[in-house]
Every structure is written in C-alpha cells, then in structure tokens.
Amino acid sequence: MEPIIIDLTKNSNYNAHKIDSSISFRKFISFIEKKTDEAETVKKTFFGMVLDKLKGNPAFSGDVPLQDIPQFREQLDLIYGLVVPPVADEKQVYWALSVPVSPIVFYGTPGFYNLVTEKSTGLLRCDLIDESGVTARQKVRMLYSFVLERLYHFPPVYQKDMIITLNDEKSGLQKYYRLNIDNSFCDVYAKGSLPELDLDELRKEMQESFDINVFAQLLPDDLFRFEGFSVITLTDITAEHAVENIKNAILDRSSNDPNTYFKFIASSLKMLVEDSYIDFGLVPVLKVNNKLVFDRSAVLYSKLMQAATQDDHAEEMYLNMANHYFQQPKVLFMRTLDGEDEKGKDFIRVLKNDGVEAYALLPVYYDNKVVGLLEVYSREQKAMNEKVLSKLDPALPLIAQIMKNHSDEFNSKIDNVIREKFTSLQPAVQWRFRETAWHYLRDQLVNPQSAVIENIQFRNVYPLYGAIDIRNSTVERNIALKEDLKLQFNSLIETFTILKQRLGFGLADEMIFKCRKWVEEINENSTDNDEMKVKDFLENEAHPFLRHFKEDSLEESGFTPGAAVATEARLIEVIDKYFEIIDEQKGAGYANRRALEASMQMINSSVNLYLDLFRKEIQLSYPCYFEKFRTDGIEYDIYIGQAIEPEKKFSELYLKNIRLWQLTSMAAIARITNSLVPQMVKALETTQLIFIHSSSIDISFRDDERRFDVEGAYNIRYQVIKKRIDKVRIKGTGERLTQPGKIALVYFNAKSAEEYVGYIRYLQGNNTLQDNLEYLDLEELQGVTGLKALRIGVNLDSGWD
Q1: Predicted TM-score (pTM) of this structure
Q2: Could you give the CA distance from residue 270 to residue 378 in angstroms, rounded to a whole number?
Q3: Is residue 353 within 8 Å of 346, Cβ to Cβ?
Q4: Which domains does the chain have, with CATH numbers?
Q5: Radius of gyration of the chain (CA)
Q6: How far apart are CA 650 and CA 613, in angstroms?
Q7: Mean of pLDDT values over 308-328
Q8: From CA 658, how far away is CA 670, in angstroms rounded?
Q9: Which of 69, 67, 92, 97 is nearest to 82 (CA)?
Q10: Residues 23-57: pLDDT tens digits?
Q11: How far apart are CA 564 and CA 558, in angstroms?
C-alpha cells in the first residue's frame, strides 16, 4: 500500500481544483469512537488500539494538507484494514482514498494504482483520461446530489452507474469497471446563507435534463467547503457488461445482419472469458418434420462446419455426428487435440487440419430441450481449461435464447414458403410441404438461380369419394327464378302502363310489349342464356327508362305547374314501389330465390358441420387427407395410405375402418337433412353417393388450383368417373340412381362391393339402415361401361345414434 497522489481529473472537463476541500479524518475517528462504545466483544479492544494509533499524532486529527499525506502511512494502513476485509488480495482490490468529493487520489491498493497508471511510466493511463465511460456530467451530478442531501435533506438522486472502460494489457480486450465514490466520511459546509430552492422543481430538473449551468447558478462551487475524505472503489463488471451486451443484441436483433450479429455475440463471449485467444461458434439445432437438417446459412457460425465445408463433407458429417450426439448430449471438452485418436472421429481430423488446438462442445438448453451447441475453441496450445468454460455459465441462458430465436426464424421461413407457394394445409400432409419448403431454401443457398419447388406427390394412396347433393336443385332454382321474374315483369308492366297513362309517352307501349314477350318466354323452358338476356334487358333498357322519369324534372314536358307536381309525385311513387319489389334483400321479386337459398344454406351448414366433426374423428385412427368442395351440395375426397404418414405403419385395417365410417356418416347426414325439412322455408331433400374405388392411385399438388389432383392416365379415369356418376341412371328403367333418404354406392369391382355389403349388414343390425338393399346395373356413361351400384335406404325415423 502506497500513499501516492494521482489527479484522476487531469485534462478532463471536471476541474476538482475549483472545489474548496480539505482532507480530514475527524469524522472517521468519531465513527470508530462510536463503534468502540457499541462493541462488546474483542472488537472493543481492537477498536481501542486503532483509536490510540489514530489519535497518537495530533496532526492526523486536524486538516491534513495533501502534500503531507505520505507522513501518515501507518494511520492510512489502519483505515484500509478497517474498511476492506483482511482476506482480500490487495493486487485484486481496486480501492483508494481521495480528496473529498474529488477524484484526486492520495492512497490506494497496488491493484488500483496498477489499473489506472501505465506500468512503464507510472503516469495516468491515456484511455482513463479520455473518459470514454464516466462523463463530467455524471461527476457534477454526484457532487450536487451530495450537497442537496446533506444541506437540504434532499433524498439521494438515482443516477446511472459510472462506468470506466479500459483495455486489458494482457488480453488486449476491453474491460469494464464500475466507479463508486463513497462520501460517508465527508462533510459539507455553506460559507454563507443557503439559497432557497424549489426542491420539487429541482428534483424534476435533476431527473430530466440536468443542465449543469442551471445548477452552477443556483449553487455556485465557491458557496461550499468540503472536508473529510472519499472512498473510491472500482469493481470489475466485465462479465456483467458482456452478458448485458448479449441481452441488448438479442433485443435489437433486427438492426443487424446475421454476420454482424454473430460477430458481436462472439466478441461479447470473448470479453466474458477474458481471453482473446478463445473463439466461439454457434450451431442451432434445426429440424424439419422432427428430423435434423443441415442449413448452410448457419455454417458461417460454426468452426467445425466451416472446416468441414472445405472438404465438402459438412452436411454428411453434421447429420452423422448430430444424430449420434443428441441421443445423449453432454459437454465434450478436449484440452488438446494432439492426444485425441482420429480413428472413427472425422471431426477431430477436420479441426486439426484447420489449425485448431483445443475444442469444446457445450449443449445449450431451452425449456429442458437442446436447442443448439456452443463451440469453444482455440488455435493456441494450452489456452483452454475448465475455468474458461465455467465463465460462460452466465451467458448460456442467453445463448439458448439466440438458438431458439434462430430456430423460430427458420421455421418462419419454412411457413412463409408454404404460404407463398402453396396454401393453408391440413396437418396430415403439412410435413411434406415443410420438407419441400426446406429443400427449396437449402437449394437457394447453393444455387439461387436453379432453385425450384419440388413436385409434391403421394403415391399409392386409397381414395374415398362422397357427395351429398340437394335433390333437383337446378329445377328448384329455375322454378324460383321463374316465379320471381313473373312477379317482377308483372310489376314492371303495371309501372309502364301508369307511365303511358300519365304522360302519354309512346315508348312506354313498346316497353310493355317487350315485357309481355319476356313473360311468355319465362313460362316456357328457359336456359341460363335466357336468364342473361333477361338481366341485360332489365339493366340496360327497362331500369334506365324508369330512372329517367324519376330523376329528371317534368317542368320541361309542357304541363302546368300544379298538374306537373301531382303527376311527378305519383310517378315517383309508382317507380319507387317497383324498385322496392326487386330489392334483393327484402323485395317480393326475390322472395322465392331467397327462400331457396336459405334452405340450401341450412342444409350445407349442417352437412359442413357434421363433416368437420367426421374429419377430426377419422384422423384419430390414422392420418388422412380430407378435402371438401362446395357445389349445390357438398363433395369430398379422402386419401389415406403409407405415403400420407411415413412414420406410422399403414394397414388395410385403417382403410376398412374409414370405409365403415364413411358409410355411417352418410347415413347420419341423410337423417340430419331429413330432420331439417320442417324448418325450411322451401322444402328440400338430399341424396347421398359413394364411389368405391378398390385400388390405390397417385395424387399430386396442383400449384394453379392450390389443391391435390390425380396423376397418370389410369388415375385420371378415376377422376372422370367420379365427376360423371352423380346423374347416372339405372339400366333399363331410366330412374336416377341417387334418391332422397337412400345411399348409393357405385363400384366396378365385385369384391369391393362385398366388403361394403358386410358393413351394410352390420348397420342394418343396429337399425341404422333399412332392410331394402338393391343390386343395380347402371347405364353406360361417356367412355365408362360396366358400372354397378348398391342402394340402401336409411332408417330416418328410429332413435339410432
């Protein structure tokens, strides 16, 4: 311990020489006297001995000039012994005494002097003079806070830690120290009357702007005198600062590109271990469909993968090593690679060839799951030991967060590709789209120009097709349209007749003639083309004609004002009445169509709800793809097979199970729609159709339609038949196969029919189906011959579940 005087404010904006201060130990002696009176153990004797030494020299109890400090080394040593724990290593403790509220040091530990001075010259370090951390503003704020606390009983004002940044001479890395100035043994006295202050306003000023000039005017420096001494302590907070840097980097991730982000994390870890010869790599665990994948964009951050990439073995090595390692993840530490056997460990050879001398691999956990690996390595011999690894412990939770964020970003990229290239997907096939999206991202990194989306196929899957059709929906729609149009045209004829009578307008006769012709055509069989012509007539001829007489003034037609007003009012009333009739939401001219749509919506909503429940239920036994299509009713496709779920062994038992469920669901739908008839404005019935296809087919995803479709000439035949059987008739009778209250099952293969007959017998046994099974031959369809069908009635009235 040496009483060496150093002015830490040299060349800085903070001029300690302006402050009227004197070194005094009176307050400290009073403090020890009080402790002596309070002590009851051996401390009382110890404190008494210290007091004798401190009071032994009367000059020490008065004001001590700065230049006389070296004369009191023994007393200063005692103060150090009382304030600092005796077991502390003086070379590692950064502690000093200074002039009160001033960083002019007069006594300190060797550790303190070694830290703030250059070893070669003994002068103050340049990087300390630069004050890159602690500002003059912070020092002045501390000074005024002390004055206000002591003289105005103003509560201590919170201020940020004062941080000093110094370059470590050994490692060359930056180190951070928290500067604490303890003024417990200082007193401050006013030289005159204290100025009155608005303390509330002052508090606000100190917390917000803290203008030094404002405080200098309110409380000038020369108004106060300080005596005592301050205790300066520097605490190494490099590890805390490094961890804080990583936290801030995580929060500000979007501001930096991945390379800059990684370099910053690595430099913070270097700071944490305090060794510039230690380097780091990050290996996030990335999975697609629960399988490890090798992402080239993450290679940049792994030393092992960088080295392996040069040999073109990176992906193979990573997957082999990772799959083995993650079965039992643990810390892998090789203090030196020279003693490691390369046999069976290709990664050791790769690291050696790249100049790595020591290597460690640390598993990083998030929510008790390994989310990545932290590599620690050095090109210097004997640079790594267990102490280095233990220093990383505070940062591991943050590294885990980085790994988790990287994994989330990776999954987000996959999802973005799926959303952009495909569509919203069912869980049963989503794994295949994720895999394809990953392959697309992987290929983009290798060769962006040639990266393409793979064709998504599922081979050898079994199709199940079902259709719930609203019986005679087209006929009912045509009837509703005719009834509405007849009402609309009758109202239109009435309106034009009044126009003719009131205005004598000759063109009204022509419009009446056209309207009557349309009524005649509507009463006959009309087509969609006729409906378009009617719409064209109404929108481009009839309605503009009426709007003209409603909107234009009738003053120009030659009537007297009184008659004109009455006529105009009557015409507007008649025209408004017509347009009320043809209002789509409320008018009588749409009543039949609204009734039909409401009934159809009731059926489709109920069927949709049931099919959604059916879809969820069948997924429980074996994952399958289920897709619905809206027509006048609802159609659906189901695909099941090994290709849909490669991780679960497929058996025909699952296929038979889903076929039974399909038949049961059709019976349930027939009963549900039948129960809705009394609630419908327009009574409608449904028919139920199943197409039995005994063999498997191949399907692929169509980018243009964003859905799956069959693939190959043989499979297309399945699609053709499926689309044509909805209106097929029974051979020799002309009767439609599909009938309300019944389920029709179309098939080619008699063996498949036998399977379904077994299901029918079972459902007849539990009163679901009636005892009226029919075996039917069907008429030939275009390009399709040999179709047969089963038809069975549904028990609509019994209480089966």
Answers
A1: 0.61
A2: 11
A3: no
A4: 6-25+62-236 (no CATH), 240-421 (3.30.450.40), 473-592 (no CATH), 595-793 (3.30.70)
A5: 46
A6: 23
A7: 79
A8: 18
A9: 97
A10: 999 999 999 999 888 887 788 888 888 899 999 88
A11: 8
